[in-house]
């Protein structure tokens, strides 16, 4: 790798950046002019939405418009950038290749060992519209480090952290790129140790999939993260990559209109996360379906009986795997029709009787007058008459009340509460629960816990929406509304793809929430099974996803740690082993030159010592970030004395990073449930320096 300060190379790239900027401005200007025209119909409005998205993407691509270049051995030069810029002339090579385009791929994957027809890779460092420097990397067969663009990568990794994640399109590594561009037809599970770029990969994969699959952009992509704090941390990455068709949520916020109202114990979280609840709820909802019997309905003062066999047949054909409310409304339609037909039959019989009497009279009259009588009266109701009658029956409030009494509409929250509070029902429908577990579930206080959300989601799905339910967000979208806004409001929205970060934390019931939103199973899940802290008991991906995918999923792995320096990663091996893992920690890509340090204090000295340590770290990493990780039992106390820095538990720190971490009472963290996994998380949050406060 050469760091090239050759002014002619910088001048050359400056000239290119100026040209690309000019081209971008022209294209953006043209789009603006088109957008100023009035959209006449739905097709034009859809086109305008697309143009607006393109304009927005060009507008955002000011910082880092051009960041790379690849020179092929045949002399072809391609520049790579945040967006693609087509040439003025029809059919000519693009001025700038979008980083997601297939032709840009060698920029991320060519190595001296596998140069893919390329002679050189160049990283171009810019700020705004100015080229600062270039890093050249020959791909001529000489042995390399295996890293792509090592200089640019190490420069990016060494930068101060701002508390917000940034894009890594200029320095993605080969193993990361392979996952970003992998096929999306089935579940892909990516295992990677701390700092291996799982979040980077997950987010860049979203951008790649939205770029390459129009249907995903139409259906939106769901990004599931472990916490609101984590979603804030990654919030600006996808917009910076120009993506808007994305909904980000946690499993707790996925069900519109429902919020977690209270904490729950690990024991109950584990119990409620088990896959058995899916079947239990299916059976419970099935048991609430009405049983067939004679139905005696009153219409216009007359009673009509729909006999049990006809009711049974209507029930069977209505249910057929449909959600409860959908089946109810199919049944109601059939009942209205059955009643209309029965009334029609009664009328026909009546008319026939009348007709018979009338014909007898006529016949007598005809005979007495010597006429051949044929004055038949037709008493049959036409098909339209019956339809019209069925419609009137359907609109009748008394019939509506009758149907409601026979087949009540149900509210998912109420239904779940009835089940959870009743030990007899729990024993009947969740027979795998022990008596102790049943008692614990039934004794829970009111208000929803996190574990309840996945159960509620399952109940809501099995019930389906009631036809008269209040607006569920399906109302026509106002002009220009983003697909993501509609998806966010609709419980049963089907996404084009789902990306899950920290996927090791999901319970089996939470995996079901994912499947409901993505029946195609086009899912990318990234996580580290060794960082699992949630209450479930899974220690391998095969266990974690068996209930959701069986063995039909693809595994991928990330092996290099980009975040945590070697000096800190060296401490993690024994911790990982104590967590019961057979894996080795990932290989750190760099050293920081700063040895981890520790100080030992008594509990009484802790507050003062932590204050001093944080002050020193903040001075040392001025302009960057410092975070404190502590056992849950100490976190509140520390928050009171450590203003201005985040004080988090290991679970809360998941996915986050700071330049320096102060780890308070590591033994206390290790003693928490799944504590060694938690300590592994806590140790690996820093990009530069780790200090530990040990308690005597
Ligand atoms: N190719 C890359 N170029 C530049 N920076 C990168 C690259 N890959 C990862 N990083 C940086 O390394 C750090 C760790 O990445 P990331 O948070 O994605 O890792 P992770 O595997 O999700 O970690 P954890 O499991 O600990 O949450 C981040 O600062 C990220 O920006």
TrEMBL record:
<keyword id="KW-0067">ATP-binding</keyword>
<feature type="domain" description="UvrD-like helicase ATP-binding">
    <location>
        <begin position="171"/>
        <end position="565"/>
    </location>
</feature>
<dbReference type="GO" id="GO:0005524">
    <property type="term" value="F:ATP binding"/>
</dbReference>
<dbReference type="InterPro" id="IPR000212">
    <property type="entry name" value="DNA_helicase_UvrD/REP"/>
</dbReference>
<keyword id="KW-0347">Helicase</keyword>
<dbReference type="InterPro" id="IPR014016">
    <property type="entry name" value="UvrD-like_ATP-bd"/>
</dbReference>
<protein>
    <recommendedName>
        <fullName>UvrD-like helicase ATP-binding domain-containing protein</fullName>
    </recommendedName>
</protein>
<dbReference type="InterPro" id="IPR027417">
    <property type="entry name" value="P-loop_NTPase"/>
</dbReference>
<dbReference type="GO" id="GO:0005829">
    <property type="term" value="C:cytosol"/>
</dbReference>
<dbReference type="GO" id="GO:0043138">
    <property type="term" value="F:3'-5' DNA helicase activity"/>
</dbReference>
<dbReference type="GO" id="GO:0003677">
    <property type="term" value="F:DNA binding"/>
</dbReference>
<dbReference type="GO" id="GO:0016787">
    <property type="term" value="F:hydrolase activity"/>
</dbReference>
<keyword id="KW-0378">Hydrolase</keyword>
<dbReference type="GO" id="GO:0000725">
    <property type="term" value="P:recombinational repair"/>
</dbReference>
<feature type="binding site">
    <location>
        <begin position="192"/>
        <end position="199"/>
    </location>
    <ligand>
        <name>ATP</name>
    </ligand>
</feature>
<keyword id="KW-0547">Nucleotide-binding</keyword>
<dbReference type="Pfam" id="PF13245">
    <property type="entry name" value="AAA_19"/>
</dbReference>
């Amino acid at each position: 790798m050469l760091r090239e300060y050759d002014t002619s190379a910088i001048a050359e790239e400056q000239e290119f950046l100026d040209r690309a900027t000019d081209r971008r401005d022209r294209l953006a200007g043209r789009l603006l002019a088109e957008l100023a025209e009035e959209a006449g119909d739905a097709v034009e409005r859809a086109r305008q939405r697309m143009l607006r998205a393109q304009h927005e993407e060009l507008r955002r691509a000011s910082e880092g418009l051009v960041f790379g270049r690849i020179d092929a051995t045949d002399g072809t030069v391609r520049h790579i950038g945040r967006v693609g810029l087509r040439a003025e002339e029809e059919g000519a090579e693009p001025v700038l290749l979008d980083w997601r385009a297939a032709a840009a791929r060698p920029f991320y994957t060519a190595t001296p060992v596998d140069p893919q027809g390329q002679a050189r890779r160049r990283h171009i460092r810019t700020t705004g519209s100015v080229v600062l420097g270039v890093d050249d990397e020959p791909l001529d067969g000489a042995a390399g480090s295996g890293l792509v663009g090592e200089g640019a990568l190490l420069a990016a990794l060494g930068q101060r952290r701002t508390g917000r994640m940034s894009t890594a399109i200029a320095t993605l590594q080969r193993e990361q790129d392979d996952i970003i561009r992998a096929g999306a037809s089935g579940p892909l599970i990516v295992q990677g140790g701390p700092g291996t770029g799982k979040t980077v990969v997950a987010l860049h994969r979203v951008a790649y999939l939205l770029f390459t699959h129009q249907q995903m952009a139409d259906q939106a992509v769901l990004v599931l993260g472990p916490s609101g704090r984590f979603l804030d941390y990654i919030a600006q990455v996808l917009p910076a990559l120009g993506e808007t068709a994305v909904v980000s949520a946690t499993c707790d916020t996925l069900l519109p209109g429902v919020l977690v109202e209270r904490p729950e114990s690990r024991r109950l979280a584990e119990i409620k996360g088990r896959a058995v609840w899916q079947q239990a709820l299916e059976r419970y909802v099935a048991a609430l379906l009405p049983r067939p019997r004679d139905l005696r309905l009153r219409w216009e003062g007359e009673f009509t009986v729909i006999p049990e066999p006809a009711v049974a047949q209507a029930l069977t054909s209505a249910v057929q795997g449909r959600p409860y409310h959908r089946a109810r409304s199919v049944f109601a339609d059939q009942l209205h029709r059955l009643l209309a037909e029965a009334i029609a039959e009664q009328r026909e019989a009546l008319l026939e009787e009348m007709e018979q009497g009338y014909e007898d009279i006529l016949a007598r009259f005809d005979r007495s007058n010597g006429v051949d009588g044929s004055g038949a009266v037709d008493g049959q109701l036409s098909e339209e008459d019956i339809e019209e009658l069925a419609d009137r029956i359907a609109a009748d409030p008394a019939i509506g009340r009758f149907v409601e009494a026979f087949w009540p509409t149900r509210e998912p929250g109420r239904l779940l509460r009835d089940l959870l509070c009743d030990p007899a029902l729990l024993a009947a429908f969740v027979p795998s629960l022990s008596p102790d577990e049943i008692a614990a579930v039934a004794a829970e206080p009111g208000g929803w816990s996190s574990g309840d959300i996945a159960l509620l989601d399952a109940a809501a799905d099995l019930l389906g929406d009631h036809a008269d339910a209040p607006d569920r967000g399906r109302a026509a979208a106002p002009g220009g509304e983003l697909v993501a806004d509609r998806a966010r409001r609709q419980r049963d929205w089907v996404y084009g793809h789902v990306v899950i970060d920290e996927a090791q934390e999901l319970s089996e019931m939470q995996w079901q929430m994912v499947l409901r939103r993505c029946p195609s199973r086009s899912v990318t899940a990234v996580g580290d099974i060794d960082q699992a802290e949630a209450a479930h008991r899974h220690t391998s991906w095969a266990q974690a996803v068996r209930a959701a995918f069986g063995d039909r999923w693809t595994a991928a792995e990330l092996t290099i740690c980009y975040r945590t320096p070697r000096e800190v990663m060296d401490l993690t091996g024994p911790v990982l082993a104590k967590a019961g893992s057979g894996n080795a920690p990932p290989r750190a890509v760099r050293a920081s030159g700063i040895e981890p340090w520790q100080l030992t204090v008594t509990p009484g000295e802790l507050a003062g010592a932590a204050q001093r340590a944080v002050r020193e770290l903040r001075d040392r990493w001025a302009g960057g970030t410092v975070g404190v990780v502590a056992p849950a039992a100490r976190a509140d106390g520390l928050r009171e004395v450590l203003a201005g820095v985040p004080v988090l538990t290991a679970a809360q720190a998941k996915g986050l990073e700071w330049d320096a971490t102060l780890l308070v009472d590591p033994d206390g963290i290790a003693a928490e449930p799944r504590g060694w996994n938690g300590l592994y998380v806590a140790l690996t949050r820093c990009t530069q320096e780790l200090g530990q406060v040990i308690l005597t």
